[in-house]
Amino acid sequence: MNKLDLQALADELGLQFDETSTVIFGQKDGYTFYIEQMNQKINTVFVVR
């Protein structure tokens, strides 16, 4: 995904996007989210309550 797609995804999820690291992160409904693109087909998603 390119940076514009990642920003749109973060906006849709109500999370923040860091352009430098291309990480989506934030808190929603008591959960902490950290989403990082590992390569073109795999994303790593960490959710902590």
Question: What is this entry, summarized?
Answer:
Helices cover about 20% and strands about 45% of the residues. It is an alpha+beta fold.
Could you outline the blueprint of secondary structure elements for this entry?
Layout: H1 3-13, E1 16-18, E2 23-28, E3 31-37, E4 43-48
Antiparallel strand pairs: 1-2, 2-3, 3-4
Describe the structure.
- This is Conserved domain protein.
- This protein has 49 residues and is of the alpha+beta class.
- The chain has a 4-stranded antiparallel β-sheet with strand order 1-2-3-4, covered by helices on one side.
- A hairpin with a 4-residue loop joins strand 1 and strand 2.
- The longest helix has 11 residues.
Oligomer: single chain
What order do the helices and strands follow?
Answer: HEEEE
What percent of residues are in strands?
35-45%
Number of domains: 1
Number of continuous helical runs: 1
Q: What general outline do the C-alpha atoms trace?
A: globular
Number of strands: 4
Report the major sheet: 4 strands, antiparallel
Class of secondary structure makeup: alpha+beta
N→C terminal distance: 27 Å
The largest sheet has its strands arranged as 1-2-3-4
- Unreliable runs, pLDDT <50, ≥5 residues? none
Quote the average pLDDT.
88
Proportion of helical residues: 10-25%
**Roughly how many Å is the radius of gyration?**
10 Å
Organism: Streptococcus constellatus subsp. pharyngis SK1060 = CCUG 46377
Protein name: Conserved domain protein
